[in-house]
Design goal:
Elements (H helix, E strand, L loop, with lengths): L23 H23 L2 H7 L30 E4 L5 E2 L4 E2 L3 E4 L10 H11 L19 H4 L8 E3 L6 E3 L6 H7 L6 H13 L1 H61 L3 H10 L3 H51 L6 H24 L3 E4 L6 E4 L6 H33 L11 H40 L6 H35 L3 H14 L1 H34 L5 H43 L12 H45 L1
Antiparallel strand pairs: 1-4, 2-3, 5-6, 7-8
Helix pairs in contact: 1-11, 1-12, 2-10, 6-16, 7-9, 7-15, 7-16, 9-15, 9-16, 9-17, 10-11, 11-12, 11-13, 11-16, 12-13, 13-14, 13-16, 15-16
């Protein structure tokens, strides 16, 4: 079997009957990996990286707000900064945009400058009055105006008014014009500062409307998941009509352009054109243009013909998509907590990402102190095997993020499986979602860890190739660029296919409590047996959901235009409207992705139900009435086709029998 899974002579599906732990070794491996992530965090805290990030440190390796140990080979290290809690940069506006670092010398001070200091006399006065020396430690404050080192070891004048950042204790200039260069690099699309100010003012003035429109998008998304079962049939047939009319119209236009061009070329063929043809060696450009139009028209005709044939063969399977959408709407009515899944997943991902970013920042200030020969500043760097902790931490970002998303898929699949395979819906658990979560935590965390790890194995090479492609942009040749893009595209397609297979494997695990490989194999066989149905659902269904996203986006945007119309200057409401539209599409995508998972799980359950049950006593269907009607209609249509075929074959049999009876007397007389 696959990865150690046991082979079975015949697959026996026993929904919700047996429960056992699946892929336990992978759960242990994932637990060890998470332990490694926690160990990295503990290492950064134990070695002072966390304290250096939170409290800050100066250019000599001293952490502000505490006593320090001297660093070998670094002067002015090992100072007692218990009364100096803030980090002050001599030139805070000297930014390295590429490396995202402040290249200025940093000092620990007891107080940030509360006013602008224009001269060295002001620096001396501030030091004498507040006891906060803003020049290097070896320079006495009362001699600032007369020291020759003041131009290198004192702050650049004028010193702007600063305030300490909350938690991080860095003195930051109050006037953000100090960062004009950085802001210009970030918003290069803005050439007029007044325009940027108007955009920001528009967002500030419309913050209540923005919040209201975001809530509107949220409510519309939740409502659409319930009512989409009533409008799915209309959307599907509108989609079908638009596709057919669009393909026929496009093909007709191409043929009309080709015929019109040929007629125009024939009419304008004159003596001058013939002379030009003789002179230039033939009218290659018009002929090439006509041939191009002909190729386009023929290709469009072939495409339209194939499309119409697919529509003809798949028209009956569209009814299954409509029935699945109808049942999915019922699922959300019986399991309303499914609508909270995007919130729970977003919250879990947000908390993990915040933790991951904090540990990454801790790693940036962890390691051995080294003096930068170019700047003369002390930097902390990981050396030896410790530098691989950053790569380990990066892999953790991908694997754990995929693990959280897979837990959502398994939770939704478990709840939908419970709904589908419970014949009496009044006997559903009080909280099917909570029951699914408990089953996941108790039995199937190893399966989720294994599935997410497979996605990680595909995602990491793709991200590496994307990084290489961006680094070599403009340097590689055309062949290398094409190969890189082809590899990235192939890995992306493989990742999407594996995501779809993983999702169905989680559903199979939720049904029969089998390991990941066994579930993936069984789900794959079911999908292959229903390939045309899968293609119909994934094309028609996905496009219907896309239309739902567009519907939510347009409704929110239209309401936003009406609400923001009081601001006559369009530059004041265009940015709030863009923010609202992006949020509306993101919310619609999150909610309708849950709906898509429900539809896919329902289809797998339906395929298993129809394969192993036939409606007879002892083998009753589990399916909903809407799906039962689809099965009955399919049976009636198949019976009608059988009767029609039998009627067509009966006259031939009678003719053959007549010929045999007429030939029999002649044969006997002979």
């Amino acid at each position: 079997g696959c990865c150690g899974s046991a082979e079975r002579a015949k697959r026996e599906w026993k929904p919700l009957e047996d429960r056992s732990c699946t892929d336990l070794p992978w759960f242990l491996l994932f637990a060890l990996f998470c332990g490694g992530m926690c160990a990295i965090c503990g290492f950064t805290i134990a070695t002072g990286g966390a304290s250096r990030l939170l409290f800050g440190y100066d250019s000599y390796g001293n952490t502000c707000g505490q006593r320090n140990e001297p660093i070998e080979g670094v002067r002015l290290s090992g100072l007692d900064h218990s009364d100096r809690k803030y980090v002050f940069f001599l030139d805070p506006c000297n930014l390295d945009i590429i490396q995202r670092k402040i290249k200025s010398m940093a000092l620990c001070v007891s107080q940030c400058p509360t006013e602008e200091l224009a001269t060295y006399s002001d620096l001396r006065r501030f030091a004498m009055m507040n006891g906060s020396e803003l020049c290097s430690y070896e320079l006495p404050g009362h001699k600032y105006p007369h020291l020759p080192e003041r131009f290198e070891k004192c702050p650049k004048l004028p010193v702007p008014e600063s305030k300490a950042l909350p938690v991080f204790n860095r003195c930051t200039p109050v006037d953000i014009s100090c960062y004009a260069k950085f802001a210009e690099a970030v918003v290069t699309f803005v050439s007029d500062n007044s325009m940027l100010n108007r955009l920001i003012a528009g967002v500030a003035a419309s913050k209540e409307i923005i919040v209201g429109l975001c809530l509107l998008a949220l409510v519309l998304s939740m409502i659409l998941m319930v009512i989409i079962r009533y409008i799915s049939a209309v959307l599907v047939w509108i989609l079908t009509a638009l596709v057919i009319l669009g393909s026929l119209g496009g093909t007709s236009v191409l043929w009309w352009l080709y015929i019109d061009y040929r007629m125009t070329m024939n009419e304008t063929m004159s003596k001058d054109l013939k002379e030009t043809e003789d002179t230039n060696g033939g009218m290659k450009t018009p002929k090439n243009h006509a041939q191009g139009l002909l190729i386009y028209a023929v290709s469009a005709t072939v495409f339209t013909g194939i499309l119409l044939l697919l529509m003809l063969f798949m028209r009956k399977r569209v009814a299954l998509t409509i029935a699945l959408f109808h049942v999915a709407g019922k699922v959300f009515i019986h399991l309303p907590l499914l609508a909270l899944q995007p919130f729970c997943t977003f919250l879990a991902l947000s908390l993990f990402w915040v933790y991951w970013i904090l540990v990454l920042l801790f790693l940036g200030t962890t390691g051995n102190p080294e003096k930068n020969e170019d700047t003369g500043l002390v930097e902390f760097r990981l050396t030896g095997g410790l530098q691989y902790m950053t790569w380990y931490h990066a892999v953790g970002l991908i694997w754990i993020s995929e693990f959280i998303l897979a837990c959502q898929q398994m939770t939704v699949a478990g709840a939908v499986v419970t709904y589908y395979f419970t014949r009496d819906k009044t006997k559903l658990p009080v909280t099917p979602i909570l029951s699914s979560v408990l089953r996941l935590v108790r039995y199937h965390l190893g399966t989720v860890a294994k599935g997410s790890f497979i996605i990680t194995l595909v995602k990491i090479p793709r991200l590496i190739l994307m990084y290489i492609h961006n680094q070599l942009k403009g340097k590689e040749n055309a062949c290398a660029r094409c190969m890189l893009k082809a590899c990235i595209c192939c890995l992306w397609c493989l990742e999407k296919c594996l995501n779809f297979l993983n999702q169905n494997a989680y559903a199979a695990t939720a049904i029969n409590s089998t390991s990941f490989c066994t579930s993936a194999r069984d789900a794959f066989m079911i999908l292959v047996e229903n390939a045309l149905r899968v293609a119909t659902i994934n094309t028609v269904g996905d496009f219907v959901l896309f239309l739902g996203k567009v519907l939510i986006l347009t409704c929110t945007a239209f309401t936003g235009v009406l609400a923001l119309n009081y601001q006559r200057d369009y530059t004041e409401w265009v940015l709030p409207l863009i923010i609202v539209c992006l949020f509306a599409f993101l919310v619609a995508h999150c909610f309708l992705s849950i709906f898509e998972i429900v539809v896919d799980v329902l289809f797998l359950c339906f395929a298993i139900d129809t394969k192993y049950n036939n409606g007879t006593p002892g083998r009753e269907f589990y399916m909903d009435k809407a799906l039962m009607e689809f099965v009955e209609n399919s049976r009636r249509s198949m019976a009608t086709e059988e009767r029609a075929r039998s009627k067509r074959s009966r006259p031939k049999e009678e003719v053959e029998l007549t010929e045999v009876t007429t030939m029999a007397p002649g044969t006997s007389s002979a």
